[in-house]
Task: inverse folding
């Protein structure tokens, strides 16, 4: 199992009417902040224990909010958590951070996040490249089809022209008929040439339009990829900075207490440990290793219970 450090903030208020008898309930709980924190921590521990590490890491915000506020009849997360004994209402929970306590687990998680980001980026790049190639092939197909249609239309126009030329040649021997046939042939030729030019211009326009769409698509996809890369780099830099801060903090604590002091405390008997702690100005001190973790929630609960009993 893995220890996780969850840091949350919350909004709260006392929900009472100034004319109501419930006003006195506000003061019925001396340490209402401590009780609220214990209740929230208990629900969060229950949510953590019921899910795997990967599942909790991916859906930590939803799981924590569900554990604290609960679900309504429609299966939606409620927006308030009421303490009936003193009318305290928690109205919002902000999950500020969720990270493993163990440095090796944290480093492994950062590596897995970085690897996932790289895989996602490469997948998006490949998808964008395949989409661009598909669009390009579609554009080429439309251009080829338009070219074939234009050639067929031009061939049809040439066939009509030859037919008209043959008809005009048959009536050349008759004066006016010959002139009319020639006029019709010239008109048909002009019309056929105009259609050919129109088909050619239409084909060029379709080609230009397809090239413009393809260039616009490539530019948009490149912009999206650059933006995603920037976001990924920011997330990696943030994770690296957090790891450096935690490492520096632990080193400063160890350097402040001193390795010799820690060794003396661990090796000395109870009376000597008490004298050493008094000399350091400490009331209590606990030393453990990664193989014997300490449940700080239960420890704090035992201390509070002992004080209440006294």
Result:
């Amino acid at each position: 199992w893995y220890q996780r450090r969850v840091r949350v903030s919350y909004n709260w208020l006392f929900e009472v009417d100034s004319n109501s008898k419930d006003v006195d309930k506000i003061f019925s709980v001396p340490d209402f902040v401590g009780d609220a924190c214990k209740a929230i921590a208990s629900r969060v521990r229950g949510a953590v224990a019921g899910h795997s590490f990967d599942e909790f890491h991916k859906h930590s915000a939803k799981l924590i909010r569900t554990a604290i506020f609960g679900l309504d009849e429609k299966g939606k997360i409620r927006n308030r958590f009421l303490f009936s004994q003193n009318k305290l209402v928690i109205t919002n929970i902000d999950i500020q951070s969720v990270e493993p306590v163990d440095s090796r687990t944290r480093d492994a998680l950062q590596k897995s996040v970085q690897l996932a980001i790289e895989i996602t980026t490469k997948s998006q790049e490949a998808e964008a490249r395949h989409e661009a190639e598909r669009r390009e092939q579609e554009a080429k197909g439309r251009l080829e089809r338009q070219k074939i249609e234009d050639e067929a239309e031009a061939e049809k126009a040439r066939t009509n022209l030859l037919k008209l030329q043959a008809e005009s040649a048959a009536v050349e021997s008759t004066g006016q008929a010959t002139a009319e046939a020639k006029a019709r042939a010239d008109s048909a030729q002009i019309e056929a040439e105009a259609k050919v030019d129109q088909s050619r211009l239409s084909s060029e326009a379709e080609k230009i339009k397809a090239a413009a769409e393809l260039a616009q698509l490539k530019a948009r996809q490149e912009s999206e990829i650059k933006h995603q890369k920037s976001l990924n780099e920011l997330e990696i830099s943030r994770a690296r900075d957090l790891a450096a801060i935690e490492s520096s903090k632990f080193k400063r604590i160890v350097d402040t207490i001193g390795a010799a002091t820690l060794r003396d405390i661990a090796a000395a008997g109870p009376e000597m440990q008490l004298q050493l702690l008094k000399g350091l100005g400490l009331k209590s001190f606990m030393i453990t290793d990664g193989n014997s973790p300490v449940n700080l929630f239960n420890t704090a609960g035992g201390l509070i219970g002992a004080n209440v009993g006294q």
User: Anything to note?
Assistant: The longest strand covers residues 88-100. The longest helix spans residues 175-257. The radius of gyration is 40 Å.
